[in-house]
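I had to read the description of the data format several times before I understood it. In essence, backbone conformation is discretised, so a fold becomes a row of integers matching the chain in length. I therefore recommend that a typical entry be quoted early in the introduction. For illustration, here is how one protein appears when written out as sequence plus structure tokens.

***
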Amino acid sequence: MKLKKLALVLTGALVSLSLLGCGAGGDQAKQASKLRVGASIDFAPFEFQDEGQKDYQGFDMDLIRAVAKEMGSEAEIQNIGFDGLIPALQAKNIDVIISGMTINDERKEKVAFSDPYYQSGLTMVVRSDEENIKSFSDLKGHKVAAQIGTTGAKMAKEMEGVTVSELNTPADCFMELKAGGVDAVINDRPVNDYYINQSQATGVKTLADRLSAEDYGIAMAKDNTELQQKINAALKKLHDNGEYDKIYQKWFGANK
């Protein structure tokens, strides 16, 4: 009798362990289905959050959700300051970055990028009564605002005789311009255009001069070639099936 009881106890323990193992596996599978995304939610129309809205909005947000869906996953988006995105990726707190991030050689030393998903460029916004600044070559001797950590800030600091204020968000830059603290704002073209058109801003204007052409990419860990391949495949599928164009038209009003 004792042997039978011992056998029953051992069998029950094994069943319990087996069930626990299945539960853990289920949790792991659930976690694996999440694509942890980092973005700086202050870069309309690419990523932003309207007051009263729960979900993050913008071109990047729609695109990464579509990419994750193509991969059989779900995007779990975290709001992280722009200059903290790459450190968060390196610390493995997130899997990818999508935040209007320009592909450049300096960043390639720290992260791997997907194929480009958007081409941008730097433009300028000045006050409507500004007559001395018509192009980037006119900025010498003037004060300029740009978002901290961006290509716009980097290139502005390389301009001879230009005083640069690096501020936290594009909105801060535009406020500084309207307050007279700076003479111009340098930012990515869609951000400037969105500000002018969507906010119905008065007293400012966008100049036609374009400083550079830049490709945006989705960033991931340098050694994660498998994820890079999956994301590139998803982007290609979205281009092929027309979903990318639908997202683009939603935010920019025309095909790329």
Notes: The chain has two domains: 34-119+215-252, 122-210. DSSP finds nine helices and twelve strands in the chain.
